[in-house]
Amino acid sequence: MPLMSDQAGRDRILAEGWRLAQAGAFTEAFDLLRRAGPGARLALARAQALAGDYAVAEGTLAAALADHPDDPDLMTDAARIAVRLSRPTLALARTDRALATGTRTSRLLRERGNALMQLGDLAGAVETWREACRIDPTDRLTASNIIYAASLDPGATTAGLKALQRGIFPGAARAVPPPADPQGRVHVGYVSACFRSHAAARVFVPLIERHDRGRVRITCYSGSPRRDGMTVRLRLAVDGWRSLVGLSDEEAARLIRADAVDILVDLDGHTSGNRLGLFALRPAPVQVSAWGYLPGPGTPGIDALVTDPVLAPRSERHLFPEALVDVPCPTLCDLQPAPEGDEPPRDPPGPVRLGCFARAEKLSDPLLAMWGRIMAARPATELILKDDLYADPGVERRVLRRMADFGIAPHRLRFEGREALAPYLARHRDIDLALDTYPYSGGLVSLDALSQGVPVLTLCGALPSARTTASILALLQRDELVTATPDGYVAAALALIDDVERLRQSRAAASGHYDRVVRSALDRTAARFDRFILAARAGAILPPAGPPGPPPVDPSG
Description:
Elements: H1 7-22, H2 26-35, H3 41-50, H4 54-67, H5 72-84, H6 88-99, H7 106-118, H8 122-135, H9 140-150, H10 158-168, E1 186-192, H11 199-209, E2 216-222, H12 229-237, E3 240-243, H13 249-258, E4 263-266, H14 276-279, E5 286-289, E6 304-307, E7 323-326, E8 352-356, H15 365-377, E9 381-386, H16 393-404, E10 413-416, H17 421-426, E11 433-435, H18 444-451, E12 456-459, H19 468-475, E13 482-483, H20 486-498, H21 500-505, H22 507-537
Parallel strand pairs: 1-2, 1-4, 2-3, 4-5, 5-6, 6-7, 8-9, 8-11, 9-10, 11-12, 12-13
Helix pairs in contact: 1-2, 1-3, 2-3, 3-4, 3-5, 4-5, 5-6, 5-7, 6-7, 7-8, 8-9, 15-16, 15-20
């Protein structure tokens, strides 16, 4: 295929290729961008990344960097792709190389902070993100990263988190528009970048499907052009579908207003790809944060937060600026059945196998210290850790170094990458006890372990995100697996290890019971949320004024 030689023609190809990529027509987009020649490799790599083809984008950027090794835009994008591929050591090297050219953009520093966070340097990540905010005070994505990092900070509290949120996103949303005519079905709009095969979608899709469709009309506003089986499942379950890809917050708000949405629901919070900025523009009379970000975003324009009494205990409810909508447990999904196949033989019994399949960035130093104490006290234990980040030598070294402080030899730890759902679930057959992360607790990871009959031990912390597993265990009436202090966590783990045969024998009965409890809770959650949105459209729900706060704080520090 001939390459374009005319610059104006290449510019047209670039614009059309990017438009097609944003529309999800990736095959056509890639073809057009390749026609624009080597000078379009950055645009091609960005389109490939938008499609989720990170390994392919890495190759495209490597070819471009071979020709232009000092191009800061190429190095910044290459660092971003390395982060997405769970290679933070490489990402850090690329950002440092770009910084050496004299480039210092907020986008470059954001990716450097992302790499530092994956490597376990939380303080360094936050410092870097604050510098990025000083360079570009309008960079909401980096500001969201600073808030997200609080969930990984063992010293964070709900009061501190809410003060941080108010300081980074001060002010109020636009005035509430007049309520719509409360006739017919209430129109609910869901906003997310995760309407695809994503962990968050496993939680919110079953709840969207459980709406009373005689009373509720649903439109999804998607922030991602990627489509897969989960996307198809959701599109078949709702009334309308709109793409927000490529739209500014102002354009997206105008679209939602034109659709006459009664209740607008944010599903992403401060996670990647969020559109919290459009909520501050008040495109709907009532706006809610639900399921995707349990601490509540704390940003202008959010009136209500879906939660429960474990995540938001009575002693902390005055700290939340949103009205709190209690459901049985906001971190649930349909439990996965055990994969076909028999349990592996245990004759003779092997060592007690501990496991944690959560993201490696959740492994704080206090958590690794607790694990070290547990394994030092019970030498006949092994620990299986599963995440793609462990393929990075810097991440694995950090864990081994912390465990070596307690005399734990490397052969007692097994590092594995992520797998497809079926083999991932099957791997739980080799786990006797799952160890929850701290302070950022597990959600679906804990549910998946419980669905396979594996008990999950948790330490209930000082943030809503540190109580997610505790919320799930409270619903399942397994309070003996919830601890309140590091010493309590270690003592409970040792007691469970010493009674491991009982744990192994009770697995099948536990998983069947959990499935029944979770299905009932999902039905009750959907019914409770339906009652809330009907009352909210009628004007019966008013958010609280919120706690008084200190003067706004510059997010750059």
